[in-house]
Structures
1.
Amino acid sequence: MELDAAVRRYLAGEADRSDLKLLVKQLLKLLVAKAPGHAVEVRVPPYGAVQCIEGPRHTRGTPGAVVEMPPDLWIDLALGRIEWPEARDSGRLRASGERTDLSALLPLLES
């Protein structure tokens, strides 16, 4: 499977830009499948953004709850290589609004 191969390359330190894009998009899809909804927007620029988690629906402007982080941090969180508190404390993760602690939903895959 394409995802499995990209995960292996990422863990080996051999992932290229296309691997990062694939991993971010597929891991965001897994997050939405695990926590469907529209209350929180998770942004991983430049590769993707999704709305997830039950709650008030966001339709225009800046959402009330936003989580944003770089691709490598998102992948590490989703693979269980780093935990939410450590990611938050790193200063590379920005989370504002209600329901933005995703720790109960992670990891999405085990590395």
2.
Amino acid sequence: MSELAKRLAAKLLWIVVVFLGITVISFAVIHLAPGSPTDMQTTLNPEATAEARARLEAFYGLDRPLHEQYVDWLSRLVRLDFGRSMSSDHRPVWDKIVERLPLTFGMNVASLVLTLIIAVPIGIASAWWQGRAFDRAATVLVFIGFAMPGFWLALLLMYALCIHWPLLPISGLTSYGFEQMGFWERMVDLARHLTLPLFVYTFGSLAGMSRFMRSSMLEVLRQDYILTARAKGLPLSTVIFKHALRNALLPTITILGLSVPGLIGGSVIIESIFALPGLGQLFYQGVMARDYPLIMGNLVLGALLTLAGNLLADVAYGLADPRIRAARGAGQ
């Protein structure tokens, strides 16, 4: 077996082991939480008896030992069957996730792109003009971004721009009569509804990303090869974008890879506040209803995004730094 095949096999084995560990812990934790799906269906029903609750638990398989429930769930997952929701509609979990995924995924991808477009230049400029007015202003922005909770910023913006100055819709994804609008009217309506949530998403991650970029760029600018390039009189753009930027991007790529799981987790609060029918809101509703299959479906998706983020970061390292590609080629 070649060295490349061994590395790929080891990587895949590691992914499988980590994924199984995540699912085991998640499955155990959600069952340890107080309450159960049957409570949601029987507590508010005065005619529900203990026998009716027992029949519901048997119907959902909750009367079996926890390890048997996990093995049954895992066997269905291998067949790409996420099970059916325990809510009143009993729809397949995958169908409910697919309905909500495009909105959450699209908003978070747009937020990541905007964050990179804004944060990378801010970090570069702050490092190059260290201690000057721009750097101090960016530092203030960073502290505000770190200190301000996303839900509080969302509420402030809703009050200012939706109530005090009614410039934007306060919640929801579309306006009344959306189906009767033309194409461009629909696009404008969607943009107006998504402006505030997208701003909150981007502002929350902008501060950290720009600060990481600044610190990394400062470290690279102190290297001997950068000092030599500047001493030779190379243009500023050449020094920064050709010699310094690629090496400075490596820590940022790491943070970007770790941000991929936030496509779900970071959406729960924002989508709940703005009443957006996304995956985060669906996950919140599943937790409140103790809908175990729905919760596990969302957690599995989050685990896959986490592992995918690590893989993408690993690949991006090689694209950003030729030395990593050379080391991998030598290892093969």
3.
Amino acid sequence: MKKNIFLTFCSFLSIASFSQKPKNYSGKPYVDSIYTVGAQIIPGRVELAYYDIGGEGIAYHDVTPENEGSKLNHEKHDYGSHWRPGVEAYTAFFRENEGVDISYTKDWADFNHPNKVDPKVNQLYIGWQEDGEWTNYTVKVIKPGKYRIITVYGNKDNKSELWLNGNKAAVLKLPEETGSFHNWTQATIGEIIFPVAGINLLTLKYNKGANLGYLDFLLVEEL
């Protein structure tokens, strides 16, 4: 009897550790004058460019202080600008004063060839990834349960992980090498369990190797 109570108590502690947003975390859900949603909703899509507000070492870690995507989109060449005609500055230079490297899918780079699965036009994505980088997302879980994780990506596996409230919760595997950062496909890349509903903190830890746009969380088993 005492053993069963002890095991139940240990299970409770394990669930509790995964289901409580760290109290000392000072990052906040991303909002601006255009994107006003706040905490992204699960089940649903978590756009990776909408990582939390809080800056380097709190909401994200990037090995360079510049947003390499915005820097590139300011450049002009003989063949034209990376800021494509008809694309709003909001997209071309999204969060340009922060370190996370963000760009968007472009006609001549991402859609001038067949993709196994096309990303959205002007899809924001995190690129220029380096080993040990990460981004935080305050999310609102509507239904506790086991979720399948799906994404569109370019290039190859980047040995990424998802951490939930400070605990490792999923290993993500990009199963196919596409041959280029701008050749895109779609795949199921892992599973994760959210023990409780409400506000949770997701951390995406990634390494060199891929362009990533978003993570779709599809409920497969409700708790």
4.
Amino acid sequence: MTLTWATATSLTDLGELTARWLTGDLDETPTYGGPPDEETATLVPVLAALNRAGFVTDFSQPGQELDQGWRQRAAISGFVDDPTCRRLTAALAATDLVLLHEYSDSGVRIPVTLDHGAAHTWVGGVSGFEDWEGEVGKTALYALDNAWYVTVVDPVWGRAEHLWHVLTNALNLPHPAKVSR
């Protein structure tokens, strides 16, 4: 049977499908219509590897200094199981990266994009697994509902590579190619 969003039954399946979307094999995800944003192109190899390692991502952005007053912190959010959450927690504890992991929405948000000094994009809290309803099977929805929602933010504006290297180390993945622009 061909793996599709509707036939997915686990975080592993959802991670594989998200990796296939990132690499251009699928046109969209249940929560994102169309291909990944252009800024994600430099992150595709590491994001695909993270998804295949159990971190089902639903948001990411590179750290970069952009023209015309825009700045970004590297950030990523998504769903992980208990063992992956423990690995990330242990690996990130001694770093300067900010890690939020929650089952229910605490309301904590961190700005990750600035437009001329004003917060423009925020991350944190819990993404609604309900956004996946009607797109994935009941077993996959159950897996999302019982997963930790994890957000990792590099507190340094514009730093391109640090977050991705720490995450790949935490999940024992090969180091990504240079991700800076």
